[in-house]
């Protein structure tokens, strides 16, 4: 396909921070790759190079963060020549590609959820996507519907399931006044706690516990976007330990 305009849209959710969402390339040096890197969305695009290789067309744009939260995120890529609108969850970023070419010439297959091993150094270091996608639309073609009805040839490599497995975790939502209190474990020398959290608030108390026999307490909080642990021990000289990250 040699196109002047492209519109690509899809929704995804994953708990993985790395993975190729879709990829296409051609013999003229053209390529387009959308992938997750360190839980951010990265679009790599090249509309081709000339025979001398003097036109540098590679363009890379990064948007979003913490996209490995297993929530649905929507992506729309609109291209007209070298002008690109990249929209992630309604936040649009406009940019213009490097180079001098306007057409995207993809004469190999387009892959969603990974990329075929091409022998190039760039291909074997990239992870395939692990998670769920829906509403994949490529230039007016409903890819998910075509794949489900097996109207694509070849349609898939490996096992695809047309359902989305939910993780077996139970989230708890706290407002500014609520908290969860659980009984302690008396006569235990070890104090251990772990949890995942997400918040838009820069400050707040995550955990507090008194030690038995008035030996002190432990407190975990967020302060201006940083997590801090405070351990207060009443019966030693250095009676306070502070750790922040």
Automatic annotation (TrEMBL):
Positions of the Laminin G domain: 1-164
SUPFAM superfamilies according to UniProt: Concanavalin A-like lectins/glucanases
Gene3D superfamilies: 2.60.120.200
Full protein name: CNTP2 protein
PROSITE patterns registered for this protein in UniProt: LAM_G_DOMAIN
UniProt source species: Phainopepla nitens
Membrane-spanning ranges: none
InterPro entries listed in its UniProt record: ConA-like_dom_sf, Laminin_G, Neurexin-related_CASP
């Amino acid at each position: 396909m040699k196109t002047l305009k492209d519109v690509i849209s899809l929704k995804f959710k994953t708990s993985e921070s790395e993975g190729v969402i879709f990829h296409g390339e051609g013999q003229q040096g053209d390529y387009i790759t959308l992938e997750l890197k360190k839980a951010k969305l990265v679009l790599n695009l090249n509309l081709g190079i000339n025979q001398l290789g003097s036109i540098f067309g590679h363009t890379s744009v990064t948007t979003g963060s913490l996209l490995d939260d297993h929530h649905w995120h929507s992506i729309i890529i609109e291209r007209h020549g070298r002008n690109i609108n990249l929209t992630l969850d309604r936040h649009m970023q406009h940019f213009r590609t490097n180079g001098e070419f306007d057409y995207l010439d993809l004469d190999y297959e387009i892959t969603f959820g990974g990329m075929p091993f091409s022998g190039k150094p760039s291909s074997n270091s990239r992870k395939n996507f692990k998670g769920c996608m829906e509403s994949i639309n490529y230039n007016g073609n409903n890819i998910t519907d075509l794949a489900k009805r097996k109207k694509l040839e070849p349609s898939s490599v490996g096992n695809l399931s047309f359902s989305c497995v939910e993780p077996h975790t139970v989230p708890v939502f706290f407002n500014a006044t609520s908290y969860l209190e659980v009984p302690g474990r008396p006569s235990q020398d070890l104090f251990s706690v772990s949890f995942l959290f997400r918040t838009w608030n820069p400050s707040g108390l995550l955990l507090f516990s008194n030690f038995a026999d008035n030996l002190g307490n432990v407190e975990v909080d967020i302060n201006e976007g940083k997590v801090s642990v405070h351990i207060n021990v009443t019966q030693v000289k250095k009676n306070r330990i502070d750790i922040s990250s």
